[in-house]
UniProtKB/TrEMBL annotation:
Ligand binding (heme b): H391
Pfam family name, one: IDO
GO molecular function annotations of the record: heme binding; metal ion binding; oxidoreductase activity, acting on single donors with incorporation of molecular oxygen, incorporation of two atoms of oxygen
Family annotation (InterPro entries): Indolamine_dOase, Trp/Indoleamine_2_3_dOase-like
Keyword presence, Metal-binding: yes
Family: Belongs to the indoleamine 2,3-dioxygenase family.
Name of the featured protein: Indoleamine 2,3-dioxygenase family protein
Keywords: Heme, Iron, Metal-binding
Biological source species: Tetrahymena thermophila (strain SB210)
SUPFAM superfamilies for this protein: Indolic compounds 2,3-dioxygenase-like (SSF140959)
């Protein structure tokens, strides 16, 4: 029980935005109080931390800096690190003292320590897997270490409890709290980002993370867009609603353009050189019996690995457009919900607020009362589809071309999980046409409507054929609810992977 999802009391939510059925306090300015949790949602910082990530630790924690500097496959000076020689496990067991992290008040230090202990954890338990992967020439990962030593486990669990997080590497640890600006006065585009911590140490690893930061830097605009849309619906202001949807379209298009720069900054061939270390222990063959956290409990733990699915951008749009409710009732959707617990508590509170608020005021219903508004709503669905289609394209080119491992880093089936969400939004784009009367559309919106509907219908048919063909080469893609702890189907019969994307109409 001690290692389950941690929640903390009102202390954890001190100065954080509070949520009820109608309001959510969003940071409008950067706080002066250093106890405010770093991942408090704001109009300026969005889903990034409100302060610059702490790069170096103060005493008595500088020993962690020293260990993590020595760890990467390639150190900053280009020489082999401990992970390259297979000596990291012994090194960290001997060199790292058991440090007291039980009373950290400064939120930057608290999250930096959490980040760094999750790095130590992943490097320790997955070191044998990467060495095996190299030795077998990418055939499989062998077995990871099944026990995490107390000098890592005890502080990590304490830090996770203070944050309301899981004691394992999350997206915030590897990406959104793991960067520095090269030019402090510049923006967070990929060329201006360097990493605080590395797993492998190559420019491709840096580029991989940097592109994510470049995308999330626009989440402040997204948060503002979402609030403006909600306000317009609540006031039943059609003109303002359409203006806000157009602004949100601009923001989502920018994010998608940034996402597409991944090809420029991180080579598909290089991804598997560091992918091993962002895998988890849940639903992975490398950890059939989980991992015991020594000094905490002898009960084995199972956690999902780091994944972009932990990010809050697309789930926010899903919830605003009431798309989440249209996801099929199957194990893949259950995994999606499980992924969404691997993020900061304030992000989860915000997402719940958006979901509940959108339902209570009827964002989708308001949009579909006017044909031109409905086309703009459809265009936002298309941007969600674009995002998920890019993610699927990355999976095919960065992973499937170089690995037959059946699971993604988070433990989801590599072939069927992403298409579950992608097919749902494509179907929603097609279904929404039932609310559109072409003779009521502006010339611009009429062209957009025809283009989006035809595009989604074609992509959906191609996706379904593609997945069925790929499944032939990958085992274990059809799963049931038993693999997703805590979730049960609403119906007696579960939907199989063969029916992914065949959800009920997205709009009825």
């Amino acid at each position: 029980m001690f290692l389950s999802r941690f929640t903390n009391s009102s202390k954890m939510l001190h100065c954080i935005s509070r949520m009820n059925s109608s309001t959510f306090k969003i940071l409008n300015d950067i706080p002066k109080d250093n106890t405010v949790p770093q991942f408090t949602v704001g109009r300026k910082n969005g889903f990034l931390p409100w302060g610059a990530p702490l790069a170096r630790l103060p005493e008595p924690f500088q020993i962690i800096d020293e260990i993590l500097d020595e760890a990467p496959y390639y150190k900053r000076d280009g020489t082999p690190g401990k992970l390259a020689t297979g000596s990291f496990g012994e090194y960290v067991r001997e060199k790292l003292p058991l440090l007291d992290v039980s009373n950290i008040k400064d939120s930057a230090l608290l999250f930096a320590l959490y980040r760094d202990y999750t790095f130590l954890t992943s490097q320790y338990i997955l070191e044998p897997c990467h060495l095996h992967y190299i030795a077998t020439k990418s055939k499989d990962y062998g077995l990871g270490r099944s026990r995490l030593p107390a000098n890592i486990a005890i502080p990590l669990v304490s830090l996770a409890k203070q944050l309301g997080a899981k004691p394992f590497m999350e997206y915030t640890c590897y990406a959104t709290y793991n960067w520095q600006k090269i030019d402090p006065t510049g923006n967070c585009d990929a060329q201006n980002i360097k990493l605080v911590r590395h797993l492998e140490g190559s420019q491709h690893e840096t580029g991989f993370v940097a592109v994510h930061i470049a995308m999330v830097q626009h989440s402040g605009e997204l948060v503002s867009n979402v609030q403006d849309v909600l306000d317009a619906v609540e006031k039943r202001d059609r003109e303002e609603f359409d203006i806000c949807l157009k602004k949100m379209l601009t923001t989502t298009k920018i994010i998608n353009v940034k996402m597409d720069t991944m090809w420029e900054y991180s080579s598909p061939k290089a991804y598997n050189n560091f992918r091993t270390y962002i895998m988890g222990t849940k639903s992975q063959p490398m950890f059939p019996n989980g991992v015991v956290y020594e000094g905490v409990s002898e009960e084995p733990t199972f956690y999902r690995g780091e994944s972009g699915a932990n990010d809050s951008i697309v789930p926010t749009i899903d919830n605003l457009l009431e798309l989440t409710d249209t996801m099929p009732d199957n194990p893949f959707t259950a995994i999606l919900k499980d992924f969404r617990t691997y993020r900061p508590v304030n992000h989860n509170a915000y997402l719940s607020y958006v979901e509940e608020k959108a339902k209570s005021i009827g964002v989708r219903a308001f949009a579909t009362q006017d044909s031109n508004s409905t086309v703009l709503y459809q265009a936002l669905l298309d941007q969600v589809s674009e995002f998920r289609e890019r993610h699927w394209r990355f999976t095919k080119n960065y992973i499937l071309k170089y690995s037959k491992h059946p699971r993604a880093t988070g433990g989801s089936p590599i072939i069927t999980w992403l298409p579950n969400q992608l097919a749902t939004v494509m179907q929603a784009i097609v279904n929404i046409q039932n609310f559109i009367k072409e003779d009521e559309l502006s010339h611009e919106n009429k062209q957009l409507y025809v283009e989006l509907t035809k595009k989604a219908d074609t992509q959906l048919r191609i996706l379904r054929r593609e997945v069925e063909e790929l499944k032939k080469d990958y085992p274990g893609q059809d799963i049931d609810f038993q693999e997703v702890e805590g979730y049960k189907p609403k119906k007696v019969e579960t939907q199989s992977a063969a029916t992914f994307g065949q959800a009920k109409p997205a709009v009825a």
